[in-house]
Amino acid sequence: MAVHPNKEGVHRHRLHVLARAVAAIIGGYVVTGLAVACLARLLPMRAAEASIAATLASFAIYACIVVTVFSTRSMLRVWIGLGGALLLLGAILYLAILAGGRL
Amino acid sequence: MKESFRQSMAWLHTWTGLMFGWLLFAMFVTGTAAYFQQEISRWMRPELAATADPVSATQAAITYLRTREPDAESWFITPPSARNPVTEVFWQPKKEEGQPPTRRKRGETSATLDGHGHPVTVRETRGGYFLYRFHFDLHYMPVMWARYLVGAAAMFMLVAIVSGIITHKKIFADFFMLRFGKGQRSWLDAHNVTAVFALPFYLMITYTGLVTLATQYMPWGVMANYASTDTFFEEVFPGRADVPRSGVAAPLVPVSSLMAMASRSWGGAGIGFVKVANPGDSTATITITRAADTAIAARGESMVFAGPSGTLLDRHVPEGGALATQSVMVGLHAGRYAGWGLRWLYFLSGIGGTIMVGSGLVLWTVKRRAKLPDPAHPHFGFRLVERLNIAAIAGLPAGLAAYFLANRLLPIAMDNRTEWEINSLFLIWAGVLLWACVRPQRRAWVESLSFAAALFAAVPIVNALTVSRNMLTGLVTGDWLFVAFDMAMVTLSFALGWAARKAARVELKATRSARQKSKELTTA
Lengths: 103, 524
Known about the structure:
A: about 0% strand; B: about 525 residues; globular
């Protein structure tokens, strides 16, 4: 992300950074939360154990998402990636809760 | 492509570091100090000296509580230990029917007792405990907000560490490189050396720090399996729920045999904590928890006994790999298990982290100053970072020294003494911030650092003038706590003084080169 010399360039650069930050911080948190919830339901352990195991991994997952969002060239690919993960994990979680057990 | 990945990580490292750098600096300073919180508390209550036998002291504390608060919901007793010479007790008062629980002052629900169960008269202070709590609860703001803020800072730190590692190609080669007096290059070296010096420690401390409050930051793992976090905690830590009193009076068995039995079954480990629920009632229970310094895991094993008969009701042994892992992670963060050698290593790593964050913050300005369109009049954002750097790096240490000085100088019988000790810290800190804003930047560095150095130098002197224990008496009587504390203050004073001298040299050089330039301009 080079700094653009002209004013319009600087403006574009800032918007670009804002979009990345939103994708990484908010998008990253939502995807992490869903991944943790899925893991908590699907890990083959006692409910309490699975919940804690998933929670312990959460910050590593979050950090990886943030790093990936900031290193991916195209913003479009970032949104597709995050959106895809959101849908996939959401569907898994929905099915896992539908299947019952625990809770 | 590979190069641009590193570039994007360098960018990420710079800005995540800056966003929360000042808060992280404060967390590092207070967290590092908190590794010696018991020792700081002891220094701040110099009236306490003799240590007592934990078992008889616990029994004496129960006798005290029986007269003082016979119908409390529960009593909590921390017996004296090698690091704390007194018994600390607090209690949960009886709930008034139909009335919301009222917030009470600390003094009304807690007491500090000697080995015979008599309240000791000590100056009111929160001691090292305040620094420990500030590390994650901050101050002057609701605790929940503070914890989210601290959590966000820790998450930024984690990202800054990961991106910092990626950015730094020759991380191990550069470890052996510390070039003094080379301006920006020296700052970068200082940042790298302190970063690599204890890199595993920073990764560990950041991650485990997040884990200590993980169920608040990331409740979704628990929410996926439980209706609420409360039901989860009840399943994992049973026996926390209150049992109503039966109303039938029954005396408690002597606690000494129970403590001996618990200690024996833990291989002679000490007792960390004793809780008595429904004291004096037939439903009373006594819970004995193992001392924290006997294992890494933070959640100690505990045993629950029936109060009137002393029969063992329940043994709580943490079970399950994930829960044990979490407990060990929290234990690693707090370092309560650490002996003296390891404790100093924790402390030094913490200081390394403080310097890493501080030098990173300074590096941000040093790198950009040269590229400013008009270096004599930087833009607002740059000036803000500059001033906040001074306030954080020189101001907080100055505040810390003021906290220790206030402990010795405030009148013993003052109202709200504890609060004013804490206020002194923040008043001095705010004072340095103001000073940094009104003075020229380079002068402000020199003056603030000198001020902090002078305050730390004043601590041993004021201590020697106000209380009877100090470094010299300590050397004679073997009171090593007071020797070590004075030495630490002198060392900090020298370190800050050295920094002030360095800053003064830079200032001198800058004025000379500015004069040179203006001369050249006039002759041209």
